[in-house]
Backbone:
């Protein structure tokens, strides 16, 4: 059976019956002249086209939106230019469609964090159907950030009890010179700054620069360290020597005695107090 078309007459009328129709012959009433669409057409339900509560502008905008492809712009500015109406009336018509259930606005968060407003038009309010996705060209594409390889943090290194600038400078020079002994130990400025306090802690414990260098270079992997700075940081922490044994500070040197003039021969001699020189004292003892 063919699908019933409510807009077409149910059956053909006789010529006599047509003459008896009150509107026939006088030019009144609606007459459809149907030409079948084969392209560029949209099916619009009578519930929208003949909606009893929607204004003509709302019905027209609803019909226009339903005819647009997915991804088209349906903001107030674009629609007001299309329907030749002001933005206030256009916005009011959209609110009518929204109240009647034909239109809904959804806020969607994109993968890049941006939030957009997506307008969904439902040709049969109250029934959720399949939402047509916008075409690839109309979809907002989130920028794909370039992934950087994660850099693992270096192991912590010991710290000197007194971070003297001279000690840190010696430690920096020692680390910068490691590449002269092994080219695989070429360190960046950032890695050198991280390792310098660890070397300073060794130097502070009376370890000579040569001994520190030997501890860092000794028994390296034959194929070379995969992360030279991480290996050096591990060695500085794991092989840290103990503090040196306590040594009492040496007493300050005695100040030399002043030069005095001998009271007997007037020759100069060193003595904490004035008097006779050694020779005059000896002569005085012999004379007595």
Residues:
């Amino acid at each position: 059976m063919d699908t019933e078309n409510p807009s077409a007459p149910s059956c053909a009328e006789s010529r006599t019956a047509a003459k008896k129709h009150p509107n026939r012959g006088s030019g009144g009433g609606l007459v459809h002249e149907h030409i079948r669409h084969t392209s560029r057409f949209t099916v619009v339900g009578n519930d929208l086209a003949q909606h009893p509560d929607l204004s003509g502008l709302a019905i027209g905008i609803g019909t226009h939106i339903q005819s647009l492809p997915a991804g088209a712009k349906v903001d107030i500015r674009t629609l007001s230019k299309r329907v030749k109406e002001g933005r206030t009336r256009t916005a009011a018509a959209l609110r009518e469609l929204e109240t009647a259930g034909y239109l809904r606005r959804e806020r969607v968060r994109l993968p890049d964090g941006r939030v957009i407003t997506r307008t969904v038009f439902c040709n049969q309010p109250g029934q959720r159907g399949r939402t047509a996705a916008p075409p690839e060209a109309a979809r907002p594409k989130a920028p794909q950030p370039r992934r950087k390889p994660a850099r693992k943090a270096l192991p912590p290194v010991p710290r000197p009890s007194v971070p003297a600038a001279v000690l840190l400078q010696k430690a920096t020079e020692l680390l910068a010179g490691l590449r002269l002994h092994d080219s695989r130990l070429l360190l960046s400025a950032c890695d050198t700054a991280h390792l310098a306090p660890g070397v300073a802690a060794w130097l502070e414990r009376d370890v000579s620069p040569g001994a520190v260098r030997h501890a860092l270079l000794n028994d390296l992997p034959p194929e070379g360290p995969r992360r030279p700075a991480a290996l050096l940081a591990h060695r500085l922490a794991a092989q840290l020597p103990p503090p040196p044994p306590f040594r009492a500070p040496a007493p300050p040197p005695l100040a030399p005695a002043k030069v005095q003039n001998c009271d007997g021969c007037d020759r100069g001699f060193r003595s904490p107090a004035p008097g006779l020189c050694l020779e005059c004292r000896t002569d005085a003892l012999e004379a007595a």
User: Anything to note?
Assistant: The longest strand covers residues 103-109.
